[in-house]
Amino acid sequence: MTTLPVNAALSSPPAPSPPLPRIIQGGMGVAISGWELAQAVSRQGQLGVVSGTGIDNLIVRRLQDGDPGGHVRRALGYFPDQDWAGQAVTDYYLEGGRAPGQPYKRVPLPTLTTHRVAWRLAILGSFVEVFLAREGHPNPVGLNLLTKLQLHTMPAMYGAMLAGVDTVIMGAGIPREVPGALDAFAQGQPYTFRVDVKGDGPATAPLTLDPADYGFGGVELPRPKFYPIISSHVLAGVLTRKATGSVQGFVIEGPTAGGHNAPPRGQTTYDESGQPIYGERDVADLSEMRKIGLPFWLAGGSGSPEALQRALDEGAAGIQVGTLFAYCAESGLRPETREHTLAAVRAGQASVYTDPLASPTGFPFKVVQLEGTLSEPEVYAARTRVCDIGYLREFYWQSEGKTGLRCAAEPVADYVRKGGKPEDTVGRKCLCNALMADAGQAQIQRGGEVEQPLVTSGDDLVKLAGWKSGYTAGDVISYLLGESTPQG
């Protein structure tokens, strides 16, 4: 194995103790918060964030598309193990990109016991994304992950640490174990997650990542800050007291934010359109947050200079903003999908629906109602169910103490055969394939069926009607800081 000193892989050292950002750019997957967006934000002195969701498939699909600009291969040239990086290029790179109609070569689906190939690609992919976001400037870069993706969290986190990530941000669950993993990986030591397992048997099962298995045993790395995304001050207190390591701050996300939302607290009720109703119990008590003594940022409906000032007045360090950045020129959203969505917004024909069924996780998921996407019942019904990416699968106990994996969006017969309830499959959408399509990397399935997008945005989407065409991340930051208007 050819190994370089890990820190030699970093494009530039981070600035010493930078001030807290007023603006955190939301971590939107898959690849919407890509390295180009994160770099543009970080260069402005705010916290640019890359998404680690789907990072293994992202790197192999970029390579199969011919690695436009050569960015992936350039970053891989700095990975500490060049034999390993070179093998990924050999396995997946296609000069000039795929032939028309050629499907992407898939990443082998990982399991509790068989995950080495997928984890290697996740480590490489996360390294590449953070390296490119950090390239050419000294400012911090963050990584966003989903707690629900328990099988995929540790390798993405470790690859980002190899590239010098400054902050890890996680939502969609209670990431109690993550601080301990960051502590262990910073010392080059293994860490064991307890993953949730459904069915008759123990409620959890162990899953270990040991840096030594990948050639980095004992290698010390900077320990990133950790900001869990929460919706409740109660959860902030729990994580402060009971997490496996230290927490450095919080992102407090309200139910108007895009992507996954926390379920309403208590008994869920629905409005006439079927959306979950949120109440006062779902709003964090900021006076209690101030007592905790850690910095926090407000998210969800925070995309305006007035919202930033209100946050500062409440004692927050600033705001996290997603939707405004999702549609800027540097985002990873497929240009055709971006323009289609913005045209619908300007025509007053786009709305956001908080769908209680769309996500296989069971969490409410914000869906833009948009022609030609899976938000339309006929487009959803026409899709052939398939689970070939598998990020949102859940563990369940099989016979003889073995674990299996299932997803409520997979073929119904498969899900039921694995012990799932057929009613849990109703309305479930394959977010994995849909979000890949959002990023312009739609899989071509058997028979030539092309996966269709499903766009997610916060309720602030309608406010984009007043934004000029082709606006940039710099325009967003300038607007949020009160230095300009949406029209320049």
Explain the layout of strands and helices.
Elements: E1 23-25, H1 35-43, E2 48-51, H2 55-64, H3 71-76, H4 82-92, H5 116-134, E3 141-146, H6 153-162, E4 167-171, H7 178-186, E5 191-198, E6 204-209, E7 225-230, H8 233-242, E8 250-253, H9 286-292, E9 296-299, H10 305-313, E10 318-321, H11 323-326, H12 335-346, E11 351-355, E12 365-369, H13 377-382, E13 394-397, E14 403-406, H14 412-417, H15 431-438, H16 473-480
Parallel strand pairs: 1-10, 2-3, 3-4, 4-7, 5-13, 7-8, 8-9, 9-10
Antiparallel strand pairs: 5-6, 11-12, 13-14
Helix pairs in contact: 1-5, 2-5, 5-6, 6-7, 8-9
Provide a descriptive summary of the structure in words:
This protein is of the alpha/beta class and 488 residues long. The protein has 16 helices and 14 strands. It has helices at 35-43, 55-64, 71-76, 82-92, 116-134, 153-162, 178-186, 233-242, 286-292, 305-313, 323-326, 335-346, 377-382, 412-417, 431-438, 473-480, and strands at residues 23-25, 48-51, 141-146, 167-171, 191-198, 204-209, 225-230, 250-253, 296-299, 318-321, 351-355, 365-369, 394-397, 403-406. The longest helix has 19 residues, at 116-134. Residues 1-12 have low confidence and may be disordered.
Please give the radius of gyration in angstroms.
Answer: 21 Å
Amino- and carboxy-terminal Cα gap: 52 Å
Beta-strand proportion: 5-15%
User: What's the total count of β strands?
Assistant: 14
